[in-house]
Amino acid sequence: MTTKERYYLTTPIYYPSDNLHIGHAYTTTVADSLARWHRFAGREAYFVTGSDEHGQKIQRAAAAKGVTPKEYVDEIVASFKDLWERLNIKYDDFVRTTDERHHRAVQAVFQKIYAKGDIYKSAYEGWYCTPCETFWLENRLEDGNCPDCGRPVELVQEESYFFRISKYADRLLEHIEQHPEFIQPESRRNEMVNFIKSGLEDLCVSRTTFDWGIPVPNAEGHVIYVWFDALTNYLTALGYPEPTELMEKWWPADLHLVGKEIMRFHTIVWPIMLMALDLPLPKTVFGHGWLLSDSEKMSKSKGNVVDPLALIAEFGVDPIRYFLLREISFGQDGNFSRRALIERTNADLANDLGNLLNRTLSMLNRYFDGVVPEPAAALSEVDRDLINHANGLGAKVDDLIKDLKINEALASIWRLVGRANKYVDERAPWNLAKQEDKAELGTVMYNLLETLRIVALLVKSFIPETGAKIWAQLGLEDLDQNTLADTEWGRLTPGIQTRKGDPIFPRIEVEKEEPAPAPKKPEKPKASEEKAPGPEGVLIGIEDFMRCELVIAEVLEASRIQGADRLLKLQVDIGSEKRQIVAGIAQHYEPDDLVGKRIVVVKNLKPAKLRGELSQGMLLAATAPDGRLEVVSVSEAIPAGSRVK
Ligand code: MSP
To answer: Which helix (H) or strand (E) holds 442?
Structure first.
């Protein structure tokens, strides 16, 4: 039996000094997607995250709240785990630095390096940035502030233990040179090399002015420096210092995924700790860029921190995961904005992918009662082009993921989705359906369904709920038994009964602007324009108008939507069923004034989400000259469900 390739990957362990924001969710979503993909591709993966609970910052935050540090972190760490669950993050281990096993690991690391003579006692005098938990020499400060975060630093004068990292500088430079994959992306490698070449100072690795940390063995009053403590978590997860099977199997790590601001700790301090421990170095440390909020770094003081839980509640998990993975060029800074999220969701998920599934299954219901047809052997040029796009795509995505080109991997999957949508238009199944012989129609429908099956497999590591939904609508089972090899063309079995469901991504309507007040007196059209076509310059035939199904709906309930001052949510009866409609009329009507009214709604409008609420139709209203909106209604003589034409 051949052993599977292995992949150990980690995220930073986050500080429970505050709730996590979308930036933290970014790193963890990437790591989760990579772990899921590697498993799908037949590799074994081990994915570790956690919380960095010691240090001065946490001790102060707890004191400010009047609770013990442990009480303080317990509550926030529970919220971390809750967020990961809601984001569909499946980690293998969660290391808390307050875990007993972690204490043992950190003390063992300290002791080993001490015994080797690489930790010595001396006195420290210098500057300290508590928010970054970083020591700074005077000459590195910028305007007297922390060069990383720009905040004020504090003078520290303590007896401390020092780690002789200067001794390892040359060995580290040599390693970096010989292993170009060690520090990625390349721009950050150059930055780190320059930093090392500018001279490494020995690092202070203990503190005495507070006690919220792991004690230095046999040195009363000293706690271990929080970064020395935190970095060790990557070994704790494997049972270090015991010679465990986990250690044997997974070390060295394949990937430490971190934000660019903590590259120095991961590419200088951490590898030197490992060299001092005689352990091999991780294969890659990747420093990704920052997620900016409306082009600025997120921070509490700026008030631009984006809460992932609120976004998930409003848009669902997969739009958030997809946006993070697709929108940001991995490695570079990227911008988060509500508008960009909505646009991305509507374009890629609702229009391209959701619509492809919906229209394919609608046609299959119409032409083949929803059963997957047998494809014919004869293929047209266009059929072959679609198949060529799909075949081999799995291997291509695998290569991109192995190179950490995550947004490019998703783009390549969406090129197939785009190709399939174009294929529908090129092959026009509605025309083929007019032919006596249904073989060609069957082939086209099979090709579309097979493309969707492959797409479901390719996307499921990134947007797991969506992969599962497509799979279920295709009538397929045991999604998790499938591997990368199953993305080969032709594995869909004819005869399967599909199960078309609701659209997987209803379009999200961007809240409409207030209607502009109408001009006081509309200008009379010039004689030459009197018979001109309508405003769009297009005359429509009656058949065009009849495509729009207008019906009478009775308003059963109406209420406001919290946080959306223009919107009302209506429950209406349209005769055949009850529906929810969201309408931008809150500034013109009290909810109670609408109850009982018989209004006109567009029944066959694509469902959409507005501020997280599903809207299944649209009501008609007219604007008065003063800008007031009036909902079109009829008398009680007309029952709900009556067609308006
Ligand atoms: N506790 C340390 C890490 C110790 S690892 C041994 C720490 N914690 S943190 O809570 O500040 O998390 C920092 C990490 O969160 C970043 O490196 C990055 O992975 C992620 N991000 C936090 N804000 C971010 C953005 N605005 N954008 C992208 N990632 C962000 O540092």
So the answer is: helix 439-459
